[in-house]
Amino acid sequence: MSSLTPELLRELVAEARHRRGLSITALTTIEQPLSPRFAALCSFAIRDGVARDPLADHVARRMSWRGKFAGSSGDAAALAQLAVCDNVICIRDRDAITEIAGWADQAELSFVRGDDYRHELLDWMRLSANHPHYLHDGLNRDALGMNAVEATAARFVLGGLFKPLDRLGLAAPLLADGGKTASACAIVLFCRPVGEDPLTTGRHFYRAWLEIGRAGLAACPISALADHPDCNERLRQLGKIGAGLRLVNVFRVGNPAKPRKPRHFRLPIERLIV
Ligand SMILES: Cc1cc2nc3c(=O)[nH]c(=O)nc-3n(C[C@H](O)[C@H](O)[C@H](O)COP(=O)(O)O)c2cc1C
Questions:
Q1: For ligand 1, what atom is nearest to the CA of residue 202?
Q2: How far apart (Å, rounded) are the C-alpha atoms in residues 12 and 22?
Q3: Residue 266 included in any domain
């Protein structure tokens, strides 16, 4: 649609969300960057007469839950609902969850030990409220669930102090997230067919996250578990994932220990779609 302006797109998306029977049905991208300015080419088709997407109501409630989980009497029913959803495998065994929590910390540390990884991560973080992009993009303190003291500590631990702390064996405990992962009521493995185009995989990933919300649970992705080849293989075995499927990502899920306040920090649509 050559005349699709950001304003029109915004209206169409708003229509699609609010009026029953209207939905976006197609979206394609070219994977190779088109130019330094444009990352992808998208085309949209809007079709009338489609039933409202049952996951639409969960978009506003979805967030990355970075805190601990508190066990709840509703966990079993929520996991039973999630277990029949497409593309997910739930690991509920408590010993397995505790073991996976340790793998996650080891995997994360192995990536954080890479200088380029740490620099990119810090570049992407907005650890001070004075950062000029604090509300616009990246990972700010609110999105990371950190207070000012924790954010200052993170800047030092991931910055100039990382190597000395790592030599003293202190970086691992300072960065560990194992307690949060171990508090989950399940570890969810998200799988998609090998060779699928990344955009389709991404759409299913988002829908799986919304399904977790529909089941009444909160989630936080633990990408290091899927990105680390050894952990990926161990989880494939644990989840009995068939050869035709790729373990794309992993979530810890559960009942949040505190009330959730979803707030998202995104570039305005005008900056994303030109
Ligand atoms: C594909 C993908 C992978 C992610 N992996 C991680 C991760 O490994 N660790 C993490 O803490 N958050 C991870 N996140 C969560 C993002 O950091 C999060 O979406 C971002 O902070 C925005 O917050 P929101 O999800 O609450 O809108 C991931 C998100 C996506 C979409």
A1: 1
A2: 9
A3: no
Kindly state whether residues 156 and 215 are assigned to the same domain: yes
Domain match, 38 and 90 both: no
Specify if 212 maps to a domain: yes
Asked if 23 and 121 sit in the same domain, the reply is no
- Whether pLDDT at 1 is above 60: no
Q: How many domains does the chain have?
A: 2
Which residue from 84, 42, 73 is spatially nearest to 203, judged by alpha carbons? 42
Q: Are residues 16 and 130 in the same domain?
A: no
Distance 162 CA to ligand 1 centre (A): 23
51 or 266: whose pLDDT is higher?
266
Kindly give the distance from the C-alpha atom of residue 58 to the centroid of ligand 1, in angstroms, as a whole number: 17
pLDDT value of position 27: 63
Q: Which DSSP helix (H) or strand (E) runs through 191?
A: strand 186-193
Task: Return the residue whose CA atom lies nearest to atom 16 of ligand 1.
Answer: 64
pLDDT tens, position by position, 98-137: 999 999 999 999 999 999 999 999 999 999 999 999 998 8
**Joined tokens for residue 174:** 């300072």
Nearest CA to ligand 1 atom 9: 222
What whole-number distance in Å separates Cα of residue 108 and Cα of residue 93?
Answer: 22
Tell me the residue type at 53. D
Q: Give me the pLDDT at residue 270, please.
A: 72
Average pLDDT over residues 185-212: 94
pLDDT reading at 34 higher than 70 = no
Model confidence pTM above 0.90: no
Asked, for residue 44, whether it belongs to a domain, the answer is yes
Rg (alpha carbons) of the chain, rounded to whole number: 20
Q: Which residues line ligand 1 (CB under 6 A)?
A: 63-64, 139, 143, 220-224, 249, 264
Q: Which domain holds residue 188?
A: 75-254
